[in-house]
Amino acid sequence: SFSAGLDLPGRFLFATLTLMTLIAILVFIEEAVYIYRKIPSSKRSIIIWINAAAPVISTTSCIGMWIPRSGMFTDFTAGIFFAIVIHKFLIMMIKECGGQKVLLRRFENGHFTISTGPCCCCCLCLPRVPITRKALFWLKLSTFQFAVFRPVLVFLSIVLWTNDNYVVYNLSPKGPALWISCIVGALTLFALWAVGIMFRKVRILLKCKNIIPKFALYQFIVILNHLQITIINMLATQKIIPCAPPLSSTVRGSYIAHQLLIMEMFLITVISRVVYRRKYHDLEPPECVAEEPTDKKQTP
């Protein structure tokens, strides 16, 4: 096997990255225990899911590093998990505002700005959408569809792969890989667009709950787990990343991507522990915020 033929620096690198993965898992377990004890039950599972994104991706990347030809399965597993995390992040922002009913009362006359990334950041002429129960339903549906259809498309890809009809790096129009990748890309953009719309509206209100650093960590995971892997795979497909027997260019590209992800997800796991472990004050009820100006006017 490839790992058996490593020289001393290679073994040291493998051992270091594996140790970083184990530390990330232990940090997450300790954080999960803290969240389970200190966070209200309504938010507990959602925050644990979001904190688990980086350790899970680090673990799948570690497996892909030791077994390079398993890269397709490890990438699919990480993609399915993160699809669920995207939906959970949107739900977390709604929960942090006090829930759907409280959020509708806080922004009773407000509007969503839909001219935001990654889909419509340049379309400034788009109308603003009133914040209603129906609008929230469509936002949640936009992330929920990704959490549902991504596993279905992954299952379809594996079925086609077992029949030798699906090749990850064969992006010809006649092959299914191109069309499945395009569908996954479109579903991903819609899900990220919904999260961006919600974040743009609640970022000022939830600034006291560090929503901006949390959103930044979430964005880093999106970029590193999707854009970075896509760029490396494109370089490997074009043979810009040279082969290193017994590994081909494509397998070596996957191998390099997994090593980078282990280091990056380790850092994100440690930073997430600091960001999510802080104690935050609950937001004031919307009734109190609305009544304050009238009380001040009645004061002689």
Automatic annotation (TrEMBL):
Q: Name one Pfam family in it.
A: Solute_trans_a
Protein's UniProt keywords contain Nuclease: no
Q: Is the keyword Transmembrane in the record?
A: yes
Transmembrane segments annotated in the record for this chain: 12-34, 46-67, 73-91, 137-161, 176-195, 215-236, 256-276
Matches recorded under InterPro entries = Ostalpha/TMEM184C (IPR005178)
**Which topology term describes how it sits in the membrane?**
Multi-pass membrane protein
State what protein this is by name. OSTA protein
Species of origin: Catharus fuscescens
